Amino acid sequence: MPRVKKATIALKKRRKILKRAKGFRWGAKSKERIARERLLHAAKHSFQDRRKKKRNFRKLWQIQINAAARERGMSYSVFIDKLKKANIELDRKVLAQLAQEYPKAFSALIEKVK
Predict the structure, then answer these.
(1) Ribonucleoprotein as a keyword (predicted)?
(2) CA 15, 34, 41, 7: dihedral to nearest 10 degrees?
(3) Could you please report the per-residue DSSP string of the chain?
(4) Which residues make Cβ contacts (< 8 Å) with residue 58, sequence separation at least 6?
(5) Considering only Cβ atoms within 10 Å of each terminal Cβ, which end of the chain, N or C, has fewer?
(6) Which mean pLDDT values do the consecutive 10-residue runs of the chain (114 residues) have?
C-alpha cells in the first residue's frame, strides 16, 4: 500500500486557521498552534457574549424606563406592576423606545395606569 502524505490538506487547514486569525496580536496571527488556541477561545467568548448581549440590553431598557417613570412620579417596579394589572402587554424594548423618542406617549401611558 502506498504511503499517503497529507501535504495539500494540511496546508489548506493551516491557511484556513491563519486566515481566521487575521487581526490577532503578536504570534497569534502567524503561528498555527497559538492561532488555533486563540480561535478556540474567541469562539467560546463570542458564543457567551451573544447571550450576554441580550441581558445587557434588557438591563439598559430597565434603566431607561425607570428614569423616565421617575421623572413622572412613579418607580419602575410600580409602573411595570400597574402595566401588568392593566393588561398592557408592551415589552421593555418598546417601553424604553417610547420613553426616549415619544415622551408624550409615555406620559399618556403613565396617566392611563395611574
Answers:
(1) yes
(2) 30
(3) ------HHHHHHHHHHHHHHTTT--GGGGT-HHHHHHHHHHHHHHHHHHHHHHHHHHHHHHHHHHHHHHHHTT--HHHHHHHHHHTT----HHHHHHHHHH-HHHHHHHHHHH-
(4) 92
(5) N
(6) 84 95 96 96 97 98 97 96 95 97 96 92
Question: What is the number of structural domains in the chain?
Answer: 1
Contact 106, 99 (CB under 8 A): yes
Helices 103-113 and 76-85, axial angle in degrees (round to 10): 70
The predicted pLDDT at position 27 comes to 95
Provide the CATH number for the domain around residue 79. Answer: 1.10.1900.20
pLDDT at 105: 96
pLDDT of residue 4: 78
On whether residue 4 sits in a domain, the answer given is no
Residue whose C-alpha cell reads 394589572 in the numeric block: 85
